[in-house]
Amino acid sequence: MYQGPGLVAWEAICQPKSTGGLGFRNVSAWNKAAMGKYLWAIANKEDSLWLRWINSVYLHNGDWWDHIPPSQSSWYWISLMRLKEQFKIALNGNLVLQKYTVDYGYKLLNPVQEKVFWNKQIWGRLNTPKHSFVAWLAIQHRLKTRDRLCKMGIFADHGCLLCKEQPETSMHLFFECAVSRKCLQQVKEWLQWKPQSVSLSGLIRWLGRSKMSNFRKLVIAAPVASLIYHIWKMRNLSYWDDETQDDMRMCKELKAGVTQRVELFWPKKVSNVDKEWFMSLL
């Protein structure tokens, strides 16, 4: 298994897809949230043998939230006190007691961030999953482009592997590069799509704000994600295999893959106008 640093921080990965993550569960935060049940039980002074023992040994009817554990306390009690401080920070001083659930505690310790503008396009239901994943990295500039490798001290040459003219950055690769821009233009013409922007973020924003039908948005999002994947694949082939892939051939493969995917996951309700538009792409 790969043991190096991740392309995206674990805290970000554990965010929902709508806020830029992958929707993974942060197990550490979840375990702490489960332990939070004991904190709330103590704060609410629930009646149980364990809580009576806690009060007799440690609290002595003192204020729970301000309690400082004695140095001779057990490691378990000290761990609970550390967790209590984390909850106090998360609650921001609002210690009003309410019904506690593990889900509530998890959201306190792992708060949801602001929504991202690209969620629906990157994770469209007609997208091929591996295409969506590469697009997810690309939209956040987390692919290992040559400019990033140079900063890490791994690489000295930062030239673009496709056009051989400009430094290879994420912005350049998608779609300032002459080669990738040519591929993008072919996809635009195929889709009968005429946005003014040529940057990846600009295209995604345009698609999100467009007044076209949801079906068309989903269909267009699929080849955009596929194009990002194929450009990255083309770039890697150029480096590892010293192979230059023909852009016409690549776009032909892209079109075939996208149309098959759309036909396989065809939505239940599609207007006749949208059906005719899609049939014109075949």
UniProtKB/TrEMBL annotation:
Domain of life (superkingdom): Eukaryota
Pfam families: zf-RVT
Residue ranges annotated for the Reverse transcriptase zinc-binding domain, each copy included: 100-182
Cited InterPro entries: RVT-Znf
Protein name listed in UniProt: Reverse transcriptase zinc-binding domain-containing protein
Organism: Cannabis sativa (Hemp)
Gene name of the encoded protein: LOC115695099
